[in-house]
Amino acid sequence: MTADADLTGWELVVGLEVHAQLATRTKLFCGCSTRFGAPPNTQTCPVCLGLPGTLPVPSRAAFEACTRTALALRCRVELETGFERKNYYYPDLPKNYQISQDARCLGRDGHLDLPGGRHVTIDNVHLEEDAGKLIHLRDAPFLQASPLVPRGDPSGTRQGGDRTATLVDLNRAGTPLAEIVTGPDLRSTDEVREYMEALRRLLAYLEVCDGKMEEGSIRFEASISVRRDGETTLGKRVEVKNLNSTAAVLKAVEHEHRRQIAAIEAGQSVAQETRLWDDARGRTALMRSKEDAHDYRYFPEPDIVPIVITAARLDELRASLPEDPETRRRRFVATLALPDYDAGVLTAERALADYFEETVGKHGDAKEVANWVMNLLLGALHERELAIADSPVTPDALAALLKLIEAGGVAKDAARKKVFPKMLETGRPAAELVDELGLKPMDDTDAILGHVRDAIAANPKAAEDYAAGKKNAAKSLMGAVMKATRGKADPKTVGRLITEELDRSS
Fold it and tell me: What is the pTM of this model?
């Protein structure tokens, strides 16, 4: 039914909640490590396990990382904020409540601009602790003999008496999260994708979150509703969880878009509820009816006093923000005359944008630098599984190579095919490699002319075609001359001499 739903006349409305794990070494209220991949339940203590008698102590690093995030999203940041308890039961929540923010959010009323010009409002940014992780097992060998997991366990979801168990890993419990909540501003899966990409870039620029969805360090939840074109009242929203990749978010949004339209057109109503995304089946499934804020029974966290940040410290944090990726992209287009595509690629990662700008500062030709970085350097680093920060060719080295080409110290073709690969392999400067490889250009015009005449004599058909008006025939001789000179001849000089010699003979 959902696959055939007619989308004509309907508007999709999407808001996103993003949980970004802050890149701190320790948890939000204790000193336990946040390192990913440790053996289960080895990074816990009485505080993050919520044992009686323990008291949480807020992390300044996490608070300031979240504050910088709110400032970068142009939020209004209050000088005094605080924490609340959000009460609900779930097996991976040790205390049966989560220390979060509701009435006293760290930031409100912000926005994020997308590359296409779309303006997405940020309702709020708040700081909270993460829960643990549940691991569901079916038919594991140790379950077969376990008297604790009887056959036909009602928690199982498969028929036939399969044995199931759920394990809990609390290493993640207490990890600091910045929750970023948009307004209901997104109207298509393209806009949803653009927002996710833009936000991940921004968080990486700020160095507050690494954005690795595969490690759970950034998680998206989508609130989706539909309404008929022209309506201003929002429809009942469905929140979709269990979205562990960008592709899953987009597929879930598309599925709910069609499912809700089909339900309404069939005379059914859409319930406000939380649904899980089943990636294997490509559909959502009911998890629970959607709670409102009062269902969580928020109240001020009694064990943590209000947190006050001075205006001076807030100004320091604001001054510490890097230029955001979208502003940087626009500047590359406006001041460096780069095409939109080039600017987008080069600002996708802060370290890459820094590398590019440093090289341009030493060479000056932004488009030429962009061509070398995008067409040669990035591909070579990808093959070697290296980050731009680990490039054997530094900005100084690349700028020196480009200057050498510009000065006629090496032919561009030889630089691309021979010198640059050696620079990547050895990290040595271009000038040394040019000497070592014997690639200094031929400056003997008479010698080059001799190779041109030999090439013409060996390819009489090219000379005949040129004489007949097929001027492109001259290009077919270029390769023969460059091969004869072992790439040492300047291509511009070779091209000029070929044309002059063909014109003279014809």
Answer: 0.83
